[in-house]
Write a structure and sequence with these properties.
This protein has 194 residues and is mainly α. It is 65% helix and 0% strand. Helix 2 runs antiparallel to helix 3, helix 2 crosses helix 4 and helix 8 packs across helix 9.
Length: 194
C-alpha cells in the first residue's frame, strides 16, 4: 500500500499511488516533489476540468490554480482519503467556482475534449455531435451531467458541491438529459469514463 491507501501498481489518473516520500517532501515545500506530483496528476486534472468547463484555455488556467492551491494546502492533507481523491475534489471544487463566476463558456477544441473523453470505438462525427450537444447546456447543467454520468458522483455529493438540495441536482440532471435527447439524442453515442 502507498501513502494513499491504494494498492501499489495503480499508475495513472487520480487513482494512482503517490509515493510516500514524494508526499513527505511536498509537505516540506520541496519544488521537485511538486513537479513530480504535477507530472503524475496534471493531465487528469486538465481532462476533468475540460470535461466540465468545455474550454481548453479555462481548463489550463484552472489546473494552474488547483496546483497552486494544492501547494499551499498540502501540509493540511491528512491522508484520510487517497491523495488523488483529495486532488480530484480540489479540481471539481475549482470548476464549480469558475462556473459560478462565469455564466457563459464557449467551445474551442472539440477533438481534444473527446480524445480525452471517449474510447476510440466512437467515430469522430459522433464525438463532435456529442460535444456539440454538451455545449448547448449551460455550464452548471454540463457540470452536473459530467460529474454524475461520467465521474460517478451521487446526487448527495452534487448537492454538497453546489450548496443545494439533492432534488436540485436530480432536477438539473433530468432537465439536461431531456434537453440533450430532444436536441439530437445520444442513443448513437456512448460516452464513457476514460
Amino acid at each position: 500500500m502507498g501513502a494513499d491507501g491504494l494498492p501499489l501498481g495503480v499508475s495513472s489518473g487520480f487513482a494512482q499511488v503517490l509515493d510516500p516520500e514524494v508526499l513527505r517532501r511536498a509537505r516540506r515545500g520541496d519544488a521537485l516533489a511538486f513537479e513530480s506530483i504535477y507530472r503524475g496528476y496534471g493531465r487528469s486534472c486538465y481532462n476533468l476540468a475540460l470535461r466540465i468547463l468545455g474550454e481548453p484555455a479555462a481548463a489550463e488556467d484552472l489546473v494552474q490554480d488547483v496546483f497552486l492551491r494544492m501547494m499551499a494546502t498540502i501540509s493540511k492533507f491528512r491522508g484520510d482519503a487517497p491523495f488523488g481523491a483529495w486532488l480530484k475534489r480540489l479540481t471539481i471544487n475549482s470548476t464549480i467556482d469558475v462556473i459560478r463566476r462565469n455564466r457563459r463558456l464557449r467551445a474551442e477544441d472539440a477533438s481534444e475534449f473527446f480524445d480525452s473523453l471517449v474510447g476510440n470505438d466512437i467515430s469522430a462525427e459522433a464525438r463532435v455531435d456529442a460535444w456539440t450537444l454538451l455545449m448547448r447546456l449551460a455550464p452548471r447543467e454540463r457540470a452536473v451531467v459530467v460529474l454524475h454520468e461520467m465521474e460517478g458522483y451521487t446526487h448527495k455529493e452534487l448537492a454538497e458541491l453546489f450548496g443545494q438540495s439533492e432534488s436540485y441536482s436530480k432536477s438539473i440532471l433530468a432537465r439536461s438529459l431531456r434537453r440533450l435527447d430532444a436536441n439530437e439524442g445520444l442513443d448513437h453515442v456512448s460516452v464513457e469514463n476514460p
